[in-house]
Amino acid sequence: MSPSAVASLRLELSLVRPVLWAATARMWRADSGLPGRYRRYLCAMHQVIRASVPLMERAATRCEALPRDPVARPLSRYLRAHAEEERGHDDWLLTDAEATGTPPEKLTGTVPPAHVAALVGAQYYWIEHSHPVALLGYIAVLEGNAPAPGLAGRLARETGLPPAAFETVRLHADLDDEHSADLDRLIERLPLDAAQRSLVAVSALHTVTSLAELFDRITAAPTEWESTDD
User: Fold this and answer.
1) Would you call 167 exposed, middle or buried from its count of C-beta atoms within 10 A (0-12, 13-18, 19+)?
2) pLDDT single digits (tens) 206-222
3) Cα–Cα distance between 139 and 219 in angstroms, integer?
């Protein structure tokens, strides 16, 4: 995939990212509901992020079953390495939740709502029934929308929750920009055909719209997360 194709993907995403940015701004607005929204955010993101390593491992396994595909070998190497970088990040969220006073079992024991399953589950479908390269669109969105520098400190001040409750936000603000740059370099190197480029874009656009819906549901205090609220 040439650098111009990477630029094309970024351009497509730029057309829909304002929707995600607006949903993020609504979720993080400073008001009396922010502590509860943050607790619901931790629950939702745990449900999403605990699937990251299994998704990458499954996609890598699928790549390894495609020995004649020129995309498969470098993609598998990237996914195996990135899975190790991401391993344990779901546990960070459990630790953060505990710092807010939410027992970790409330996160692990909550049934994920349908819109979380739709966000993550689409990737399983494309990995199994199309091509594992779809996962790059998902990763591009999640790591291309890193928390802003200083967000963890602002949330701590505005919620009154202890700074220890915001470690995952702080760490991802530091890590995700570097990971996003690594992903761009990979995409530039991969010899993707037109169908594979389209699949990456479709996956990325689905992820943007699904993540914005997730944030809006957190903001609206849906019943799925009421048990983790104040």
Assistant:
1) middle
2) 999 999 999 999 999 75
3) 23
DSSP, collapsed to helix, strand or coil, labels residue 181 as: helix
pLDDT tens readout for residues 132-141 = 999 999 999 9
**DSSP-based helix, strand, coil % in the chain, nearest 5:** 80, 0, 20
Its pTM surpasses 0.85: yes
Q: Which of 137, 122, 145 is nearest to 24 (CA)?
A: 145
Per the structure block, which two tokens stand in for 98? 């505990």
| Strand, helix or coil for residue 50 | coil
Rounded CA-CA distance 8/35 in Å is: 38
Transcribe 88-145 into DSSP letters: THHHHHHHHHHHTT--HHHHHTSPPPHHHHHHHHHHHHHHHHT-GGGHHHHHHHHHHT
Q: What are the backbone dihedrals phi and psi of residue 105, each rounded to the nearest 5 degrees, phi first?
A: -65, -20
